[in-house]
Structures
1.
Amino acid sequence: MLVRRLSQTDAVGEGEEDQQCCGSPDPSHKDLHEVAAQQYKDEVSRARTAVVAGTLVKSEMLDIEDKPFLSESLGALQLAEKTAVATYNLTDDLQLMVYQGDITTFGADALVNSSNEDLNHCEGIAAALSQAGGPDVQFEIDSLRKHKGQIPTGEVVVTIGGNLPCKRLLHAVGPVAGKAAGKERVLLERTVRRALSLAELMKFKSIAMPCIGSGVFGIPVTVCSDAIVCAVKEFCSQGEKSLKTICLIDDKGEVVRAMQESCDKHLLGQSFLQPL
């Protein structure tokens, strides 16, 4: 049977919203595009090609062992410093954890960015992650936008994590309310499954994602939460995984509650253990 452990009370406090995530960038800082252009205009050859989930992953995107700050213990150490609102044991060695906090400071092997088709990260969580990642991340995003154009809804691309506490940053292109012909839920589930599959392909042990599709994308939080949890449920039922921890995180109490309620609804009492 699946077990749920609460580390705090069920009532998640609203708390103060992180102004860095939702507010405008500090005007005292240089525009990221200017920094990237100035610092890297003579180093175009350094640009790595981002990966669309389901296509061949270039070897350099999998080459993470040569970076000393990206040790395998990074995710575990960072996760240990935070307290989960709720924990769900999906299998003997795979957990789903719900957190309230700032994803830009959350350590995991992979962080998921809620992106649009144009990879134009100027609002919400996307802006916060792009800014926190620094010019290296922005340079790869700009290069990808130039060479790939729009990324289809439901797909995921990957860049380095830059200054973020992760090995890779996965840019998940979710649907926008009113522009998906009523298929928001289906596209959301597809997006989450692709992100999880890509993390699995890279043999990551931990991944953290926000409530993709909510906020500036305009899809109701309850719809997004249900889609994410159902996608996780399907993913973990497909056999043994390298992923050991899947984290859902948001800085807003009402969103965290919605994610926890979806987990309770779709996961409690379920077992994903494979028959002998």
Note: Residues 34 and 135 are 9 Å apart (CA to CA).
2.
Amino acid sequence: MKILILLDLNLSCLLPMLLFMLGAFLLGWLLKHLFGREKRELAELHITHDELNSKHNAYVSDSTTKYNSLDGRYSSLQSDYNIAAENGEKLKKAELEIGQLKASLDIAAKKPANEKIVEVPAMGLAAETIATSTTEGDNYTRFYKAISAFFGAKIVKDDLKLVEGIGPVIEKVFNDAGYNTWASVAGADAATLKSILDGAGDQFAMHDPGTWPKQCQLMVDDKWSELKKYQDELDGGKMN
């Protein structure tokens, strides 16, 4: 009987201890399981991060290579374009020279016995001379064809539109006022020409005829190279 009582007492004391130990074991197992899963997930995240970082670096490297390649190609194309543009300007200038030289050769081949010498400008070349008839016949017409080739526009004698700053409307205004030739404009002063424009209407107020008499005088004197150089310095017929 005493033994049973002692046994019962021992079991009563041991049971809470056993339950405590079991609880501690279960808690430890649960914590180990949870932390173990978090470690695995963290390891997987590290692997994913490394893979993404590697892909990013590869993308940046590839993009940089492609950019450098495209930039080099662009620079090459820009250089080719600049060369082509420069050659185009040279070709245009050469074509004008060829046209002027052909006109000069045509006139020289057909020059009459009775002739006078007038200047013909040549772009990039020394001024040349061509023979024109003193009667101002066919050869004189060919002379203006040569001048037209030089200026890149059709030119006839006493065409006031050759003056930089004079267009068809202003030419008509001057014609109506009695100024029909280069010589007549060359002999007028700028103030007189300005008063004619003012009398024609407010729309002509912006025009400045200050250089027009000099331009016409150069035409009268057949100083075409000097005229071209002078006009290159003008802006709409005005001095820059």
Note: The first strand starts at residue 115 and ends at 120.
